[in-house]
Amino acid sequence: MSKGVLLFANNNSQIDYVKQACYLAKKINKHLKVPVSLVTSDKKRVTDYYPYEVFDQIIEKKSKNNFSKRYNDGALSHKKLEFNNDLRPQAYKLTPYDVTLMMDTDYIICNDLFKNVFDTEHDLLLYKDSTDITLHRDFTEFKRISDTSIDFYWATCVVFKKTYFTKTFFELIEHIRQEWVHYANVYQLSQRVYRNDYSFSIAVNLMDNHKIGSMPGKMLYSTDKDVLFEVEEDKLKFLVEKKDRLGQYTAVYTDKLNVHVMNKFSLNRMIDGVM
């Protein structure tokens, strides 16, 4: 059975997701040694301006999203930008692999923890348990999708096989995306912008989940109010916002740990320094 990683990258006016994907593909090649394919809306731009050789395949698919959202760059800076996240439900149709690890481009691979996920007995693997890089801040938004609703599952790292179950799962996610206002009302979501984490969580809640397993370990993340300020091989250094102290930070570093870096501005700045 073929196996590989699938990434989605559509740039907006400020954030270069394709650059993130190129950097992540190099990290995947180093630690997981599996092919990486990219789904993007402008294949020619990728081949003209980026080191596209890191990708096994470049799959062109136009985004039709018209959402925007707030992007934080630390605690004191933010911008409202386009948010092109509507293609993830089509991953089952788009992937060229029998077993796929689908990842966000802002998830940084620094070890081989995912090396054996392709051999899972489950049809689908997701993260539910998570912790931030300080190991002591507690963000309730990553526990349940709303205060009175269902458990939160991450769409950041997902492993799926080509089976009838996962085909149905992704068809359901696409249905949820198309009927987002309805599902946001049913599940009492205050945030009306479509979010893949929420649609995956809803789909898990609606389907028989005995074929769904857990990704290894816990999802480790830094928030978009934290700042990644240095990258040295597999060591990441952050300024982490102190809880309830606006604009005050503590230095934290991780070594050989995979991290979901939500501050995309600081991630892009660091990639510029290492690529």
Task: Report on the architecture of this protein.
With 275 residues, this protein is α/β, with parallel strands linked by helices. It has a single domain (3-219), classed as Spore Coat Polysaccharide Biosynthesis Protein SpsA, Chain A, CATH 3.90.550. 25% of the residues lie in helices and 29% in strands. The chain has seven helices and 16 strands. The strands form four sheets. It has a seven-stranded mixed β-sheet. Strands 7-16-12-9 form a four-stranded mixed β-sheet, with no helix packed on it. A hairpin with a 2-residue loop joins strand 13 and strand 14. Helix 4 packs across helix 6 (196-206).
CATH superfamily: Spore Coat Polysaccharide Biosynthesis Protein SpsA, Chain A
Helix content: 25-40%
Poorly predicted parts? none
Number of separate helices: 7
CATH topology: Spore Coat Polysaccharide Biosynthesis Protein SpsA, Chain A
CATH class category: Alpha Beta
Number of strands: 16
Can you give me a brief rundown of this structure?
The protein has 275 residues and is an alpha/beta fold. It has helices spanning 17-31, 43-49, 91-94, 164-178, 180-186, 196-206, 264-274; strands spanning 3-8, 36-40, 57-60, 67-72, 78-83, 99-103, 107-108, 124-127, 130-132, 154-161, 212-214, 219-222, 227-232, 235-241, 249-255, 259-261. The protein has one domain: Spore Coat Polysaccharide Biosynthesis Protein SpsA, Chain A (Alpha-Beta Complex), CATH 3.90.550.
